[in-house]
Model the fold of this input.
Amino acid sequence: MLGLVRELRFLVDTTHALASARDPKSVLRIIFDKAKLMIRCEAWSLFLINASTQELVFDMVGGPKARRLKGRRIKTGQGIAGWVAQNGKPAMVADTGKDRRFLAEIDRATKFVTRTVLCVPIFSKKRPVAVLEMVNKIGKPFDRQDLRLLTRLSEQASIALERATLREQAATLGVIDELTKLYNARYLAQALDREVRRCQRYGSIMALIFLDLDHFKAINDHYGHLLGSQCLAEVAQIMAASVRDVDILARYGGDEFVVILPETTVATAKMVAERLHSGVGTHVFLKNAGVNAHMSTSIGIAGLPDHAKTKEDLVRKADEAMYRAKSEGRNRLCIADQP
Done:
């Protein structure tokens, strides 16, 4: 029981660390470091799979002969790691001397003795893109618990890789709002799908904030659409400074904005929403244009699984809470009703 609790805490901690990873390389570094902490071994390797050359590259290495391996290449299908890459399946080898897949030339080149191996593939978009290999567990042989843990790490890495890859591609895929430089509704839909799927798979939590500017039409009517657009850009800057690095901020359309808060309770989301509400409410807009304009916000908050079980219900609940804030007099925030 104690081992399962420790494993669960470890996986939750890994999820938090992955939420802040901004690029695929950072995701793989986190997984590599976490695997080293959880399963004590003599050596570790993370291979990147080059699909065009059908090769595995030693990208991250640890252990007594690590420097000799960095950058070395092996063919897909060659060795235990190559077999894992080719077949997309994990491998646990209790005695390399009795496994025909074992590639002895690596040991000969490094003068290292590989006795036992645990190896898992890491997927992105349903194809293997990397392989994580643990060598010579200290104290006792690899077991099914080690295999389960490393497989769970691999699954977490796969989801985080998709998220990080989307971030990298965002600017070239037309998912950035040109005016505010925030993500647009297209990216928001993708991010919501991904985060809700992660919550459902790992039993984790998230929150959603809907923000609408009060009486924004009056700003457009009074000062013109050009200065109205400048107000929206200033709102985006305030919001970007008010949310956390792990949060996903998007312009939903018009004067509506949305924040996705991964691994976040409703109570914490309320604190973020209060910062947004205060930040916009105390800001003086259009000072550069010689105008001192003020705006307020109506904000709705919903959590998963607190208020919803699906993406559609989560969006509806946050939207309903926002409109309740408007109907109650605007310039306030409301939390979704319990289901």
Notes: The domain at 174-335 is CATH 3.30.70.270 (Alpha-Beta Plaits).
